[in-house]
Specification:
single chain, about 400 residues, mainly alpha, globular, disordered C terminus, DUF2236 domain-containing protein, Lcp-like, MPAB/Lcp_cat_dom
Length: about 400
């Protein structure tokens, strides 16, 4: 509470369209230069072995790692001066208490609202990281699971420590972004139309959808954070944004600023897109398959429309459903959420709740995919569709 009093929790930034528009043409110099230097060696076997080692080795780099990669991991692990370990620890504890709900909202709010931003969705569709192999549910499940794993690793206690899984996961995902940018820009990417691939605005929008907009989803079902909890939770994501390569002037100052940034990007970038609708269709197929027998197709549709609202749901071609079913879904979620909030007020029951949350998150990830790591590899669409069949990262 003392640290909360030291924070500026009211001042917000002017996230105007001009400012955000300029950020669509800025990427990530550190990660991009690292990947370019490694690719310039043109030693396919060495590159494959190197990235395979990154996947398997969770802490140390192999001795054969080039200096560029060692420099990248050293520099990207440096936290900003404003990072506060106590606020990070509290934010991660809050995540642990609400992890099941946050995991649910990732699929029913965060990801589909990201798809609603048509220019950013173009990257996902072009690389086919979410629907390669002609929409294979197995591949799609792995992609969703990797996203969920990233959030779990980063937001679990100690995840952002020097040897934490969350820190290494953020560094790896940042490199994955750079690899995708590298190949997209070599294969007819229209930067004038879409902006640079995985640019600063898209990265900020994604991180806000995973953080600030998640909190809005929790509020829909009656779960509200105390001010200190809210700022601590957002502080974690501010630090994650820094590690992920977000420019300092694109990191919101506080929770109010994060909400403002998230909505500014969504309002600016939301647009009709067949590619986005295809991504949401794949997401709905995934939900209908993986949520059995707890939720059926109608429940999944009702939950999507509850969390995103009519405008965004219509834009993404989510099937219509009666308001009665949406309200019933809201009542069920609020009822269950209220029980959890009551238990969370008790020290004994909150410890039990955290234990079951851990178990629930583990089961959720296993349900999504059998893999326990975030794969560092080049999407098949980049190796097959563009003729680079020898390069598999």
């Amino acid at each position: 509470m003392a640290k909360l009093n030291q924070l500026n929790i009211t001042e917000t930034t002017d996230w105007n369209d001009g400012r955000l528009g300029r950020k669509r043409h800025i990427m990530d110099p550190l990660a991009d230069q690292t990947v370019a230097a490694i690719m310039a060696k043109k030693e396919v076997n060495t590159i494959n072995h190197l990235f395979e080692s990154i996947v398997l080795d969770k802490i140390a780099l192999p001795e054969s790692a080039p200096i560029e990669l060692r420099t990248y991991f050293e520099q990207s692990a440096i936290f900003p001066e404003w990072a506060d370990p106590d606020l990070i620890a509290l934010g991660q504890q809050i995540y642990l208490r609400h992890g099941i709900w946050i995991g649910l909202l990732l699929c029913y709010k965060s990801l589909p609202e990201c798809y609603a931003c048509a220019n950013g969705a173009e990257v996902l569709h072009r690389t086919a990281r979410l629907n390669e192999d002609h929409g294979s549910l197995k591949v799609f499940s792995r992609r969703i699971a990797e996203t969920a794993q990233f959030v779990v690793f980063a937001m679990s206690p100690d995840g952002l420590e020097a040897k934490g899984k969350g820190l290494r996961a953020a560094q790896k995902v940042r490199l994955i972004h750079a690899v995708i940018r590298y190949y997209l820009k070599q294969n007819h990417w229209d930067a004038e139309k879409y902006g640079e691939p995985i640019n600063q605005e898209d990265l900020a929008g994604t991180l806000m959808s995973f953080s600030a907009l998640i909190i809005e989803g929790l509020e829909i079902i009656g779960i509200q954070f105390e001010p200190v909890e809210l700022e601590a939770y957002m502080h974690c994501w501010r630090v994650i944004g820094h590690v992920m390569g977000l420019d300092e002037d694109m990191i919101p100052q506080n929770s109010a600023d994060a909400f403002k940034l998230g909505h500014a990007i969504l309002d600016k970038e939301i647009a009709p897109s067949k590619n986005a609708q295809e991504l949401v269709k794949a997401l709905r197929d995934f939900q209908n398959e993986k949520s059995k027998p707890i939720l059926g197709a109608d429940s999944n549709t009702a939950l999507l429309r509850l969390m995103m609202g009519k405008e965004v749901s219509d834009l993404l071609a989510v099937p219509p459903i009666s308001s009665k079913k949406i309200n019933k879904m809201k009542w069920k979620m609020t009822f269950i959420g209220n029980i959890g909030e009551v238990l969370d007020k008790s020290l004994v029951f909150s410890m039990l709740l955290q234990f079951f949350t851990k178990m629930g998150l583990t089961l959720m990830l296993r349900r999504m995919s059998n893999s326990s790591i975030i794969n560092f590899y080049l999407p098949k669409s980049l190796t097959q569709d563009w003729g680079n069949k020898k390069v598999r990262l």
